């Protein structure tokens, strides 16, 4: 990565952080707490995605 | 107590409104993905320099944060959505050229594209059919994304390949969560959900999954 790309990437990432951190704080306070069954219903499809990505990595 | 006669009618109306939002969102999403692919094709053909990616992503984010919220409820909002997705698609050109120049480049790009489509369809189908409430994920996903951004910022200077791959893997998981979260919002909020904002949100998840998958597959295919 050349120097200008590094500087540009850093500026973009810092800008994203500045914009997103207040939104994340707000969402953390406003989001309802998930129950165990809700977390399980999230973790199952995400686990399937992990296995699928590993399969794709074997394919190429 | 007898059920008031207007209750079933309102419920039917609400279901129809939800279905309308879902239909509008997926129609616009398909159109923007197609437009984005055309723009990516143009950018690839023109062999745009690597800086194009950064400028396009920067420009698109400015539109997402500062322009879209102001026009999301007006008819002009649709042009802003096409502007954002077109810009992001155009930014993909240098990245695609880099991967296509690899010996198995076309295969890597093809598998990344098909894989992204399968992940999106699978997760959307899961959230739509189960109709589970994923609203609890909002804060967790955004905080996770901020941690990823901090790691990415550190890795610009550290340049550790393993960290770069870990970031890509975590981005796929976080964006998968966002697909569940947004689809669930669309189902629950129904008529109050804005289909332009929903489209952009889902598009950004798909975009990030595609780029991260491209990175992981590029590594597995032997570019790193």
Summarize the structure.
Chain A has 2 helices and no strands.
Structural overview:
The complex is a heterodimer of chains A (60) and B (224). Chain A is mainly α and 60 residues long. Chain A has one domain. Chain A contains two helices and no strands. With 224 residues, chain B is mainly alpha-helical. Residues 1-7 of chain B have low confidence and may be disordered. In chain B, helix 1 packs across helix 7 (195-220), helix 3 runs antiparallel to helix 4 (105-130) and helix 3 (77-100) runs parallel beside helix 7. Chain B has helices at 6-45, 51-71, 77-100, 105-130, 137-158, 161-189, 195-220.
What key phrases describe this protein's structure?
heterodimer, A: 60 residues, mainly alpha, flat, B: 224 residues, 7 helices, globular, disordered N terminus
What is the molecular shape of chain B? globular
Q: Structural class, judged by helices and strands of chain B? A: mainly alpha
Largest sheet geometry of chain B: none
Query: Number of helical runs of chain B?
Result: 7
- Largest sheet, strands/sense/barrel of chain A: none
Rg of chain A from C-alpha positions?
Answer: 18 Å
Question: What is the element string of chain A, with H for helices and E for strands?
Answer: HH
Largest interface: A-B, 42 and 51 residues
Report the radius of gyration of chain B as a whole number of Å: 19 Å
- What class do helices, strands and sheet pairing of chain A give? mainly alpha
Which stretches of chain B are low in confidence, meaning pLDDT under 50 for 5 or more residues running? 1-7
How many distinct folded domains of chain B?
1
Give the overall shape of chain A: flat
Round the mean pLDDT of chain A to the nearest integer and report it: 93
Unreliably modeled segments of chain A: none
Helical proportion of chain A?
A: over 70%
Termini separation of chain A (Å)?
25 Å
The helix tally of chain A amounts to 2
Let me know the number of strands of chain B. 0
Question: Beta-sheet strand percentage of chain A?
Answer: under 5%
> Helix-strand pattern of chain B, N to C?
HHHHHHH
């Amino acid at each position: 990565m050349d120097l200008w790309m590094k500087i540009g990437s850093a500026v973009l990432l810092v800008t994203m952080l500045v914009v997103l951190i207040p939104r994340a704080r707000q969402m953390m306070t406003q989001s309802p707490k998930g129950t165990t069954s809700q977390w399980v219903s999230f973790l199952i499809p995400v686990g399937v995605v992990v296995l699928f990505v590993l399969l794709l990595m074997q394919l190429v | 107590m007898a059920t008031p006669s207007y209750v079933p009618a309102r419920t039917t109306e609400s279901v129809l409104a939800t279905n309308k939002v879902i239909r509008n969102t997926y129609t616009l999403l398909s159109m923007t993905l197609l437009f984005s692919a055309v723009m990516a094709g143009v950018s690839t053909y023109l062999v745009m320099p690597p800086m194009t990616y950064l400028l396009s992503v920067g420009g698109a984010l400015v539109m997402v944060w500062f322009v879209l919220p102001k026009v999301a409820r007006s008819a002009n909002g649709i042009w802003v959505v096409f502007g954002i997705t077109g810009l992001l698609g155009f930014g993909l050109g240098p990245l695609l050229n880099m991967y296509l120049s690899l010996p198995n480049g076309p295969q890597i790009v093809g598998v990344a594209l098909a894989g992204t489509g399968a992940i999106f369809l699978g997760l959307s189908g899961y959230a739509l059919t189960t109709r589970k409430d994923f609203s609890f994920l909002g804060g967790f996903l955004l905080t996770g994304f901020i941690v990823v951004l901090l790691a990415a910022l550190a890795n610009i200077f550290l340049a550790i390949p393993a960290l770069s791959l870990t970031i890509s893997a975590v981005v796929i998981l976080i964006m998968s969560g966002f697909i569940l979260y947004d689809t669930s919002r669309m189902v629950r909020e129904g008529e109050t959900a804005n289909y332009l904002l929903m489209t952009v949100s889902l598009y950004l998840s798909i975009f990030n999954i595609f780029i991260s998958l491209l990175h992981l597959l590029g590594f597995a295919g032997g570019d790193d």
